[in-house]
């Protein structure tokens, strides 16, 4: 049962001891290199804020609806059967598609960024807390290039724009210390989490600007966010740097793989077996395109079909069975 208490329980993942960490060394003398397009030029193309006066636009919108609670609905077509295809009656087949070459001549790389963040939605947000190896500096920042990739061992990925030569505080700290905490952003601290995305100079605290509360961790030195309902302590497993195709000779991205070493879940969100988090309590925030974010207030359940039960024993479904390469 879920309790009404607001303290946290930390869970030890059922894994073998942490794997040896593979980290690439960064020095304190990291410098920002000159790239073909400046950050200001890139931001102009991205048009992250399409509103001349955002606060004026925001003031004209409906207020946040606090009454919305997590609910589970039916699927669009509960009576769907094998062979039915899309549930829109074929309407989606009538609209043509546009083919886009991500590397066509004259297409800025930031166009791919803008396209992808508006098409791969919703995306989970990894709210990353890091500390420099010597403990002199901390960083707190949200990342939507974030995902869980496996459970045994618990592995997560975070993508960074730019190579090691352009590393910002979060990547510097992660590589130097080999540690971090991944926090999941919930509705009750979304504004504070967003404040940490400010481009503060190295050494200035995003914690104090946000007003969020650092809490001690168990296996890493970086603090977890106490307001977060779910947090994951992690050790850096590996990094990989990628070369730019838009600007040959330059590095454009770093992928970090992190192994979870401790889980922290607020007690009112976890079940008795400590293996299920209640979405009605977690209320996670997701990233959409541009500067738009999403709430998670509605879901649906759908059974994963079993071939023997739903196809082999179904005469109508068996008639639809064809070799994989036929017409594909």
From TrEMBL:
The reply to whether Flavoprotein figures as a keyword in the UniProt entry is: yes
Which keywords, in A-to-Z order, does the entry hold?
A: Flavoprotein, FMN
Q: Which InterPro entries match?
A: Flavin_Rdtase-like_dom, Split_barrel_FMN-bd
What Gene3D superfamilies is this protein classified in?
Answer: Electron Transport, Fmn-binding Protein, Chain A
From the UniProt annotation, give the residues forming the signal peptide: none
Which residues does the UniProt record annotate as the domain Flavin reductase like? 118-273
Task: List, alphabetically, the SMART domains matched.
Answer: Flavin_Reduct
Q: Which GO terms describe its molecular function?
A: FMN binding
Q: Enumerate the cofactors the protein uses.
A: FMN
What Pfam families is this protein classified in?
Flavin_Reduct (PF01613)
Keyword Flavoprotein among record annotations: yes
Looking up PANTHER family in the UniProt record yields:
FLAVIN REDUCTASE LIKE DOMAIN-CONTAINING PROTEIN, FLAVOPROTEIN OXYGENASE
Family label: Belongs to the flavoredoxin family.
According to UniProt, the name of this protein is: Flavin reductase like domain-containing protein
Organism per entry? Lachnellula cervina
